[in-house]
Amino acid sequence: MLLDKIILTNFRQYKGNQVIEFAHDKEQNVTVIIGKNTGGKTTLVQAFVWCLYGKSTFKKDTKLLNAEIESEFEDRPIGAISEVAVDLTLTHKGIIYRIERRRTYEKTNRAFREAERFTIKQSEDNGETYHMIELNRNKLDEMIRSILPEDLSSYFFFWGERIDNIDSNKNISQAVKDFLGLSAIDNAKSHIKSVVDQYDIELARLEGVDTQVFQRGKDLEKVKQDIVQKKLN
């Protein structure tokens, strides 16, 4: 997985559309983000996690919509709409994906009405054109897990307070299996074992039937011999 670009729209400190493109040069391929405390470095990392998995772990203010945009709603009419979004472009196994999570806020008489939309588009012509992947939400989540399982994301996207908790992840083994495609192999092995077990059961049953048939045949042959012997006598 290679990160290409991320666009943050009204996400926390990032008001408006803020675009960050990541270095792809073979020699100079490191992008360094520098900022003061509370400048948005942790928020940037959280944006990746929210975009991919729909989760955020902000300890204090858990709101995602930019504070200035939210305050402007006070002077806007009922029905006014604003959005917070993260649009992530990445390359995985030669395919370019655009993954977008967008949350819409609509002003009502009391507060906000929220609605969230999650989409994945893909391109196979170097990003010239994209087409929407038409799958239900569960299938889209499965696609994200195939690119980067959530339990492995802590090793790719982390911030200060999460470093100490990285090794405590109990699902890392399963996540690695998912990431490497080993879960499919495990499932196939389990399925084959169940088929073989069922075959053994059926075989044993048939062998039992064959034994009974063989014994009945012997009994019948003995009866025939007894009949012949009686006729001779």
Automatic annotation (TrEMBL):
<comment type="subunit">
    <text>Heterodimer of SbcC and SbcD.</text>
</comment>
<dbReference type="InterPro" id="IPR038729">
    <property type="entry name" value="Rad50/SbcC_AAA"/>
</dbReference>
<dbReference type="Pfam" id="PF13476">
    <property type="entry name" value="AAA_23"/>
</dbReference>
<dbReference type="InterPro" id="IPR027417">
    <property type="entry name" value="P-loop_NTPase"/>
</dbReference>
<protein>
    <recommendedName>
        <fullName>Nuclease SbcCD subunit C</fullName>
    </recommendedName>
</protein>
<comment type="similarity">
    <text>Belongs to the SMC family. SbcC subfamily.</text>
</comment>
<feature type="domain" description="Rad50/SbcC-type AAA">
    <location>
        <begin position="5"/>
        <end position="228"/>
    </location>
</feature>
